[in-house]
Recover the amino acids of this structure.
């Protein structure tokens, strides 16, 4: 089956990923733990990372977040939802041809900081944005 | 063939290809409980996603349960109208799906 061949291909990258981080980053329980696994502790704060997220999200199950890195040589963009039980949300490895800007939708259990870590030229940069999540859906 | 879980749209503008994709997937975190039985719903989310253009990697993503249900992703890359874009995903239960489209193909 064609799909089986494809999945083994991805599986090997996944194993390399786990090995590179010395553990399962998805199971990490705190932001510090995630940063440690990324090797990004002490990342420099940067104004060149733009996070486009709603200030108030009525529905925490679907929060659109756009991340743009204006740092030259960006190779990785990681986003962390600080207040979630497992804060690691997504890591994007940006290929040579790709523009270092990704939009996707996140889940947020409650009001949280969205922390973005960008790897460029072997160095780590970070920025954050706060998203208020109102559960009742009445925007209050 | 069953309907693909992937919806893929691409558009060329000024040498950049805009890629938008929507994937049908429950993205269960493994933390949520079934209200009726009180049992935890097992984790079921996409862990890896790869987008290639003409077989060359453009973006690789590692996702977790913190990504919303039926995930959406959008980004741009420098490419040409003749490219064909492939999106492949794999989840934590070993399921996977893949779809290839030419630029602008609906």
């Amino acid at each position: 089956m064609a799909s089986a061949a494809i999945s083994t291909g991805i599986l090997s990258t996944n194993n390399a990923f786990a090995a590179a981080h010395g553990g399962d980053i998805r199971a990490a329980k705190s932001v510090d733990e995630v940063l440690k696994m990324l090797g990004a502790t002490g990342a420099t704060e940067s104004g060149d990372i733009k996070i486009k997220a709603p200030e108030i999200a009525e529905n925490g199950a679907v929060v659109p977040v756009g991340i743009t890195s204006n740092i030259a040589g960006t190779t990785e963009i990681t986003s962390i939802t600080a207040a979630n039980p497992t804060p690691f949300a997504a890591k994007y490895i940006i290929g040579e041809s790709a523009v270092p800007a990704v939009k996707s939708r996140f889940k947020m259990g409650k009001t949280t900081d969205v922390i973005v870590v960008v790897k460029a030229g072997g160095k780590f940069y970070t920025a954050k944005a706060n998203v208020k999540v109102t559960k009742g859906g009445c925007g209050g | 063939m069953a309907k693909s879980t992937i919806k893929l749209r691409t558009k060329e503008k000024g040498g950049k290809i805009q890629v938008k994709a929507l994937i049908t997937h429950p993205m269960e975190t493994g933390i949520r409980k079934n209200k009726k039985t009180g049992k935890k719903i097992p984790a079921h989310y996409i862990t890896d996603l790869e987008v290639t253009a003409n077989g060359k990697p453009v973006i690789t993503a590692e996702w977790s349960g913190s990504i919303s249900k039926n995930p959406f992703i959008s980004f741009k890359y420098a490419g040409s109208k003749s490219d064909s874009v492939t999106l492949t995903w794999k989840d934590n239960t070993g399921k996977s799906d893949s779809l290839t489209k030419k630029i602008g193909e609906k």
The CA atoms of residues 34 and 54 of chain B lie 43 Å apart.
